[in-house]
């Protein structure tokens, strides 16, 4: 797995340039889906000889790049509302569904063993709960040996769709968070240290004892991190598992009319993991020929890429959603 991902990263490392050959596409943006886009691009080149270079620079960077028309497609985990799409002359569609987990590095605490209420997660990231053996954590974990150690909070340092979806979840889970910090691709973090991209947060959590951070599940899986068990919107304990991600994803309500705008955190249901998110592709309306090449790549991914998505810890889009996206392409990209 690690050798393959390393080779895939080489495909993504090529610098984005303004000049583009007929058989090469350049994309940039969200780190959340980057492992999946690397895999899709690797197999697409193998099967078609066509190259797709993707730079994992964060959703904020991806939106800026596509708005400036520096790349063929941008990628963002924060969906863009229809009004802004119209103003910026962009198309938008989802590519996959992923999940954000609360990864931690606490000696002796196994994956899924630590239970954190959603509002407790908010208090940790707000710097209000400072030690792992705080009574608000210990009361839900009576059998765990929680250390009398300072919690090291790790958050994103860049504009991030992962941060948008995580803070959207915190805003819904905690009145304190909603009133004092709020939702955004970048927020004024009250505590902690910052890492660039999901890669940076993952690396900091992995190397920092007693740390906690939020990362896309694929990064947790490939780096063998431990993640906390959280709560559903109705208060049931729920682990970060594929079954529970799917339980939340089934509530996604996509429509072509609003360019598939949807935020999937805190969906209903007794098994719905609370921080599930879609990741989106943005295209410039005026570049019809380049757009046709981009959708050829994503149509390939939708047709042949589900196994890779599942292996990496993502949820493939339902076939009904894929067909709706194809209808959207047919209506808009001619």
Architecture overview:
With 334 residues, the chain is an alpha/beta fold. It has two domains: 164 residues, 3-Layer(aba) Sandwich (D-Maltodextrin-Binding Protein, domain 2); 149 residues, D-Maltodextrin-Binding Protein, domain 2 (3-Layer(aba) Sandwich). The chain is built from 14 helices and eleven strands. The strands form two sheets. Strands 1, 2, 3, 4, 5, 6, 7, 8 and 11 form a nine-stranded mixed sheet that branches. Strands 9-10 form a two-stranded antiparallel sheet. Helix 1 crosses helix 2. The two termini are 39 Å apart.
Topology record:
Blueprint: H1 2-12, E1 24-29, H2 34-48, E2 51-56, H3 59-67, E3 73-76, H4 82-88, E4 90-105, H5 118-125, H6 135-138, E5 152-156, H7 161-173, H8 175-180, E6 193-195, H9 197-207, E7 211-216, H10 217-222, E8 226-227, E9 230-231, E10 237-238, H11 242-249, E11 276-284, H12 288-304, H13 306-311, H14 319-332
Parallel strand pairs: 1-2, 1-3, 5-6, 5-7
Antiparallel strand pairs: 3-11, 4-7, 4-8, 4-11, 9-10
């Amino acid at each position: 797995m690690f050798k393959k991902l390393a080779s895939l990263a080489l495909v993504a490392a090529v610098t984005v340039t303004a000049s583009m050959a007929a058989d090469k596409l350049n994309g940039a943006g969200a780190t959340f889906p980057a492992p999946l886009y690397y895999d899709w691009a690797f197999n697409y080149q193998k099967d078609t000889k066509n190259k797709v270079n993707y730079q994992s620079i964060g959703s904020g960077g991806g939106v800026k790049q596509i708005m400036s028309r520096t790349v063929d497609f941008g990628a963002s985990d924060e969906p863009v509302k229809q009004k802004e799409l119209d103003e910026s002359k962009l198309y938008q569609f989802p590519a996959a569904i992923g999940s954000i987990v609360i990864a931690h590095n606490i000696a002796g605490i196994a994956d899924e063993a630590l239970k954190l209420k959603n509002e407790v997660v908010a208090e940790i990231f707000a710097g209000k709960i400072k030690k792992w053996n705080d009574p608000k954590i210990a009361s839900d974990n009576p059998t765990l040996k929680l250390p009398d150690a300072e919690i090291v909070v790790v958050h994103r340092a860049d504009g991030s769709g992962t941060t948008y979806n995580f803070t959207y979840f915190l805003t819904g889970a905690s009145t304190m968070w909603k009133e004092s910090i709020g939702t955004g691709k970048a927020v004024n973090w009250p505590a902690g240290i910052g890492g660039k991209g999901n890669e940076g947060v993952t690396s900091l959590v992995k190397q920092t004892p007693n740390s906690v951070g939020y990362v896309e599940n694929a990064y947790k899986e490939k780096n063998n991190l431990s993640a906390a068990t959280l709560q559903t919107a109705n208060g049931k304990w729920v682990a970060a598992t594929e079954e529970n991600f799917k339980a939340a994803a089934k509530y996604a309500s996509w429509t072509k009319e609003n360019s598939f705008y949807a935020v999937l955190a805190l969906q209903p249901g007794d098994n719905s993991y609370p921080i599930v998110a879609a990741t989106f592709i943005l295209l410039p309306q005026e570049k019809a020929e380049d757009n046709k090449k981009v959708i050829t790549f994503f149509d390939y991914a939708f047709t042949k890429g589900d196994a890779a998505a599942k292996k990496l810890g993502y949820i493939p889009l339902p076939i009904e959603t894929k067909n709706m996206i194809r209808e959207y392409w047919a209506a808009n990209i001619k």
